[in-house]
């Protein structure tokens, strides 16, 4: 559940209008800025090194992989590593499994979480605040506590090695996503709902036709985080999916073995493949994700 | 009769009432919470008090599992030690580094956005893929990237993950991996910093505060709620670390050997729980482990909140 970590949430409101300070162009300030950029550049270099190394190693054969001194630019490039991983090592199949699970999770999670969040943000009912606190509290529960009993239950009803244990719970909304949606819905003007209600629009239609179309930023943020969460999930699939047929991409990586020799460069190629979708997804949703941290105001 | 005609009180069916509708909308979550939260939690607690034999007949044993784990399980003792070091080390990295990076990026300058993206993106990639990547980075001998880097300073290659004399090196590598994933906390700190009204910094500047005083007296106190939030989230995340230790402990591709690493030096709560529950199928023991892990989470969270209460002063700002 390391994913709790990377989910941005902020405790602060959007920045108030900053008073424009005239920055004095003195040598000290300039020196400070240079030091700042130098420190950040060094750190980013350190950060990027393993990833550049990874790409380099993924394009080699085993001899090149272990060559000392190290070659940053492989000669020759072995592009076959990628096609081999995808076609000979069954990764096409694993990617297919992971992809449809992730897309399902995105669609279902957006619908169910926004539905529940609508209830929490637009209706008054006894116990609402207490129940919302329970939603937040469930984020603290380690999922593994429940997994053990759920595993035994699924085994009784014959769901082991099927996708049901990963699909069904998504229908009921997820705590963090409900929280994100609720915060966003609270910021939407109620006047529009009111107008729709007076025009005879029911609450269900208000949710679908009024609230959701206004919620593009939060929908994108939830979509990206849900996709990433599903794409990298290991614990659940490891326990529930026992057969080779149902393996997801993380399981394919975990059980990576080489029937054809020279496995390490292939493993590196498989890692590159599995890291591409998250990076692309972030690039697409970046504008919204950066703003998304301001959506979650916990105060 | 008059009621029905009164325009102030339109007749409403019971399911049109606001409260009822509210419950209808949250009912999916409520149902899911009962089925996938409360019920398995209770079942897990019952399981943790029992022991199943090979014929799957379940016997109630009271607190035996807990007692054995806490007093008579040398593996668990090693793991508890690992976890203490790992959680403290990793949280210090996540919070310290995240805060430093946020402070560096707080000032606007050209290229700020590029740095922020480069630092943030790796934290989105955490998982078994990066775990295997860093396993190769911390490979022993001259081939590993970490050793290649250290050789620039004339250091002999370190056998990070398989040194029989210094098994703790593996734990150090496991902690160091978190340097690459500090971007998540960084982004939240950055949002927190942007929420501090600029007038506070200006007032401090006018009063002649230096950069250090500014940090100690303005930034840190006003940022403390964000620090507390980030620390709690980091603790919860680090206690549940799973993929990286599992990958580091794997010898070869398949899950062979001891998934807890050489002399259990890479054992964490979740890998041990996985081994006990799903490799040895001892569900009672695994459930008890899960509850002990949960209790450890609550204790550490409580400790952070208590410390925060003692050492931060939320109300001080308006005394100025």
From TrEMBL, chain A:
Primary site of residence: membrane
Region called Disordered, residue ranges: 1-23
Compartments reported by the entry: Cell membrane
ABC transmembrane type-1 domain ranges (all copies): 95-285
InterPro entries assigned to the protein according to its UniProt record, in alphabetical order: MetI-like, MetI-like_sf
Protein keywords: Cell membrane, Membrane, Transmembrane, Transmembrane helix, Transport
PROSITE patterns: ABC_TM1
Keyword Cytoplasm attributed: no
Listed GO CC annotations: plasma membrane
Spans through the membrane: 33-55, 99-118, 130-151, 163-181, 218-240, 260-284
Pfam families associated with the record: BPD_transp_1 (PF00528)
Keyword Isomerase: no
Recorded topology in the membrane: Multi-pass membrane protein
Family label: Belongs to the binding-protein-dependent transport system permease family.
Protein name: Sugar ABC transporter permease
Annotated organism of origin: Catellatospora citrea
Top-level taxonomy: Bacteria, Bacillati, Actinomycetota, Actinomycetes, Micromonosporales
Automatic annotation (TrEMBL), chain B:
Domain ABC transmembrane type-1: 80-304
Membrane-spanning segments: 21-46, 83-106, 118-138, 168-191, 222-242, 285-308
PROSITE patterns, A to Z: ABC_TM1
Membrane topology category: Multi-pass membrane protein
A GO biological process held by the record: transmembrane transport
Cellular localization per UniProt: Cell membrane
Principal subcellular localisation of the protein: membrane
CDD domains reported in the protein's UniProt record: TM_PBP2
The keyword Transport appears for this protein: yes
GO cellular component, one term: plasma membrane
Keywords: Cell membrane, Membrane, Transmembrane, Transmembrane helix, Transport
Family: Belongs to the binding-protein-dependent transport system permease family.
Protein name (Swiss-Prot/TrEMBL): Sugar ABC transporter permease
């Amino acid at each position: 559940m390391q994913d709790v970590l990377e989910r941005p949430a902020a405790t602060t409101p959007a920045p108030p209008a900053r008073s424009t300070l005239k920055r004095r162009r003195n040598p000290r300030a300039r020196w400070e800025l240079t030091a700042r950029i130098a420190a950040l550049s060094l750190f980013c270099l350190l950060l990027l090194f393993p990833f550049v190394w990874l790409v380099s190693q993924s394009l080699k054969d085993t001899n090149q992989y272990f060559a000392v001194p190290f070659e940053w630019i492989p000669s020759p490039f072995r592009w076959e590593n990628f096609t081999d991983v995808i076609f000979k090592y069954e990764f096409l199949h694993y990617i297919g499994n992971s992809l449809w699970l992730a897309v399902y999770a995105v669609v279902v999670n957006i619908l169910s979480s926004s539905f529940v969040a609508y209830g929490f943000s637009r209706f008054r009912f006894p116990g609402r605040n207490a129940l919302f606190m329970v939603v937040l509290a469930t984020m603290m529960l380690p999922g593994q506590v429940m997994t053990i009993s759920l595993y035994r239950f699924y085994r009784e009803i014959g769901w082991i090695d099927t996708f049901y244990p990963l699909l069904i719970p998504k229908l009921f909304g997820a705590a963090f996503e409900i929280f994100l949606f609720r915060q966003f819905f609270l910021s939407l003007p109620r006047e529009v709902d009111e107008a729709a209600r007076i025009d005879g629009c029911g609450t269900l239609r208000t949710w679908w036709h009024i609230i959701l179309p206004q919620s593009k930023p939060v929908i994108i943020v939830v979509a990206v985080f849900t996709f990433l969460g599903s794409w990298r999930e290991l614990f659940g699939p490891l326990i529930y999916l026992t057969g080779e047929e149902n393996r997801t991409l993380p399981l394919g990586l975990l059980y990576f073995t080489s029937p054809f020799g020279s496995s390490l460069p292939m493993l590196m190629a498989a890692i590159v493949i599995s890291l591409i979708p998250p990076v692309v997804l972030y690039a697409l949703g970046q504008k919204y994700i950066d703003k998304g941290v301001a959506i979650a105001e916990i105060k | 009769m008059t009621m029905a005609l009164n325009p102030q009180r339109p007749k409403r069916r019971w399911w049109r009432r606001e409260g009822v509708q509210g419950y209808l909308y949250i009912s999916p979550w409520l149902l899911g919470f009962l089925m996938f939260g409360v019920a398995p939690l209770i079942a897990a607690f019952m399981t943790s008090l029992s022991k199943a034999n090979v014929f799957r007949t379940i016997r109630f044993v009271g607190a035996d599992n807990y007692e054995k784990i806490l007093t008579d399980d040398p593996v668990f003792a090693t793991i508890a030690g690992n976890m203490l070091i790992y959680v403290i080390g990793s949280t210090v990295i996540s919070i310290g580094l995240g805060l430093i990076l946020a402070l560096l990026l707080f000032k606007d300058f050209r290229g700020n956005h590029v740095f922020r993206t480069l630092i943030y993106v790796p934290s989105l990639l955490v998982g078994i893929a990066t775990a295997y990547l860093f396993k190769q980075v911390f490979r022993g001998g001259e081939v590993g990237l970490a050793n290649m880097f250290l050789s620039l300073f004339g250091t002999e290659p370190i056998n990070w993950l398989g040194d029989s004399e210094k098994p703790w090196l593996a734990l150090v590598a496991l902690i160091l991996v978190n340097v690459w994933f500090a971007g998540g906390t960084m982004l939240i700190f950055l949002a927190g910093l942007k929420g501090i009204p600029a007038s506070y910094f200006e007032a401090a500047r006018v009063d002649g505060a230096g950069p250090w005083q500014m940090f100690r007296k303005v930034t840190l106190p006003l940022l403390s709620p964000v620090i507390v939030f980030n620390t709690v989230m980091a603790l919860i995340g680090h206690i549940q670390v799973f993929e990286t230790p599992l990958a580091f402990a794997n010898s070869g591709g398949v899950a062979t050997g001891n998934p807890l690493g050489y002399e259990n030096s890479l054992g964490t709560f979740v890998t041990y729980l996985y081994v006990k529950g799903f490799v040895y199928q001892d569900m009672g023991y695994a459930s008890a482990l899960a509850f002990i892990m949960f209790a450890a989470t609550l204790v550490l969270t409580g400790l952070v909140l208590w410390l925060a209460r003692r050492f931060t002063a939320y109300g001080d700002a308006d005394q100025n």
